[in-house]
Amino acid sequence: MDFELSRTQQEIQKAVRDFAKGEFDKELALELEARHEFPRQIWQKAGRLGLLGVHFPEAYSGQGLGCLEAILVVEELCRADSTIGAAVALSGFASEILLHFGSEAQKTRWLPQVAEAKVLSAGAFTEPDHGSDITAMNTTAVADGDHWVLNGTKTFITNGGLAAFYCVLCQTEEAAEPSYRGLSLILVEADRPGLTTADVGPKMGIRMMATAEVNLRDVRVPRENLIGEAGKGFYQVLHFFDESRIQVAAQALGTGQGAFDRALAYVKQREQFGKKIAQFQVTQHKLADMATKLELARLMTYKAAWNFDQGRIDPKLTSMAKMVAARTAVEVADEAIQLLGGYGYMTEYEVERFYRDAKITEIYEGTKEIQKNTIASAILGKLK
Questions:
Q1: Contacts with 88 (C-beta within 8 Å, 6 or more apart), sequence order
Q2: Domains of the chain, each with CATH number or no CATH
Q3: Catalytic residue ranges
Q4: What is the pLDDT of residues 116-137, one digit of tens each?
C-alpha cells in the first residue's frame, strides 16, 4: 500500500498551484463574486494549459489520466480560491457522462471543446417536484420519427444558461415499472428552439457559477442524441455520481484547506495580550483539530478516487468521502472565522467566503442525508 503521490501527480499539483498563484487575485475574486460573473478568462487559460479534462483520453484533448489526477486539480484550484476554483473545476460538469456512455460522434464533438475551455457543459437531473429523488421524472422525451421531443423543467442546474449542451435525464417510457427503468439520458444542445433558462437568483455561495432553471418546451433533437441505451439513464447517472461525488469531495477538501491556510497565516502574525495568537494553547488545539479533520478527509477522498481508477464502483465509499469532506470543509471554515475573530467576518479576509462556498458541498450531488442513505443501504443490504 503506497500513500505517496507519483511524480506525475506531484507535477500536476505544482502546475495547478503555479497557475493559481499567477492568475488568481483576491481583488478580482471579490469583484467577480459581487457581479456573480463567471471567471471566463481564467477558465480559458486553464484550458490552454491542459488543466481541464485531464482524465479524458488524449484523443479528446485530455491527458489520459484518471480520477485521482482530476481531483488533485479540483483540490488545488479550490484551495487557492474557493469561488474561482469551483467555477473553473466544475466547468465541464457532467461531461463524464459522454466520456463513459456517449457515442463516438458525441465524444468527438464535445469532449475536446470541454477540455480546451471552449464550452461549458451541464447535467440536467434535478426537478422542482422531485429534488433528490431521481427515480422518476416529470420531464419526458417522446419519440417522433427521427427525433425526440422533450418537455419539462429542471432546476438548480450548474452552468445553466452558460453551457453549450445539457445531459438531460428524462422519462422515455412512462409505462415502465418501476419508473426508473424508463429513464434515459439525452443530449440537448443549448441553442435548440424551445430551450430557455432563467437564473435561480442570488445565492449564499459559489456566486461565480451559474445556477439556473432550464425549461424545455417541445424541444426537438435527433434520435442519435440519445446517450447510450434507452432505459439506462438512471443507472448511468448513478455511475456518474460515483465519480462526481469524489470531485465534490475534492472541492470541499480544497475549500477547507484554503480556509485553514488563511487562518494559519493569520494566527502566526496576529498579536494579542503581548504574544502571537498561535502561541496560545487554545489556538494550537484548534489548529490540531482542523488539520486532523483535513487529513482524514484527504485520505478518504484520495482512496475513493484511487478505487474508481481501479475500475471498481463503490457508492458506499464515494458517499463516505463526500459526506466527510463536505462536513470537514464547513467545520474548518467555521473555525477559521473564529480564529480571525471580527476580521473573519469581513469580506476582505476571505474566510467568510470560503465558509459560504463550503456549505454547498453538503447539498449538491446528493445531500448529506442522501449520502447516509447510500452508506446505510450498502451496510445493511436487502432486509427481509
A1: 39, 42, 43, 46, 52, 77
A2: 7-115 (1.10.540.10), 121-232 (2.40.110.10), 235-380 (1.20.140.10)
A3: 365
A4: 999 999 999 999 987 778 888 9
